[in-house]
Design brief:
By secondary structure, the chain is of the alpha+beta class. It has 2 domains: 78 residues, Glutaredoxin (3-Layer(aba) Sandwich), CATH 3.40.30; 116 residues, Glutathione S-transferase Yfyf (Class Pi), Chain A, domain 2. It is 48% helix and 7% strand. The protein has 9 helices and 4 strands, in the order E-H-E-H-E-E-H-H-H-H-H-H-H. Strands 2-1-3-4 form a 4-stranded mixed β-sheet, covered by helices on one side. Strand 1, helix 1 and strand 2 form a beta-alpha-beta unit. 35% of the residues are buried.
């Protein structure tokens, strides 16, 4: 008998937030039935999806019999709390706070500035042309990653990964940002510590399987 997926995931191939959830599921050995919500076609604003998430943002995550979960970091913490091994957060309070802080620098301070709905607003109401939009993206990616790079370089908690030598939520968020940059062809700034950590992440099967370019709907490699 074919094993049924553990969960349902509403996502889109290139989004950072969906990537984070895919990685977490892969690390935990969990499966989700994924439903494609094509944000380029506005499917996230359909009445059907707005019943799942009134904000129209993805991902949405469903544990059967419960209300949909939204916001990728909340979903990651839910997955970690319900399936503790391997842990996505350190055991000590200071370590957990540091990992959460780095994760939020990426997922809450950097990512929201470059989401499709922000880009659409800038190119319509904001009057940005392609050059201005690209400048906006490069600027905010650079600002966010350089701030994280400085922390990783200067703080003793950094190891092979963002915190110590095991993957945490911070690494998932970091790799999600760089994966999206690749997908929209924005080069990584000079951040050698980040580059090394991301390379270690990308060598792991859990991250490689979540690669946006390997998902349903991704453009074919030219």
């Amino acid at each position: 008998m074919t094993q049924q997926p553990d969960y349902e995931l509403y996502g889109y191939w290139r989004t950072s937030a969906t990537y984070r959830v895919r990685v977490a599921l892969n690390l935990k050995g969990l499966k989700a039935q994924e439903h494609v919500v094509d944000i380029d076609k506005g499917e996230n604003l359909s009445e059907a999806f707005l019943k799942i998430n009134p904000l129209g943002a993805i991902p949405a995550f469903i544990d059967k019999g419960h209300a949909p979960l939204t916001q990728s970091l909340a979903i990651l913490e839910f997955i970690d709390e319900t399936h503790p091994a391997p842990p996505l957060l350190p055991a000590d309070p200071h370590g957990r706070a540091r990992v959460r802080a780095i994760a939020h620098m990426l997922a809450a301070d950097t990512h929201p500035l470059i989401t499709p709905r922000v880009r659409k607003y800038l190119t319509t109401t904001g009057g940005f042309d392609d050059a201005k939009l690209r400048g906006w993206l490069v600027h905010w990616f650079t600002v966010g990653l350089q701030a994280v790079e400085r922390r990783l370089m200067e703080e003793p908690g950094t190891g092979a990964f963002c915190h110590g030598d095991q993957v945490t939520m911070a690494d998932i968020c970091l790799a999600s940002i760089t994966a999206t940059m690749k997908a929209i062809k924005i080069p990584l700034p000079d951040v050698p510590t980040i580059a090394a950590i991301v390379a270690r992440c990308e060598a792991m099967e859990a991250f490689a399987k979540a690669d946006p370019m390997k998902q349903v709907g991704a453009p074919k490699a030219s």
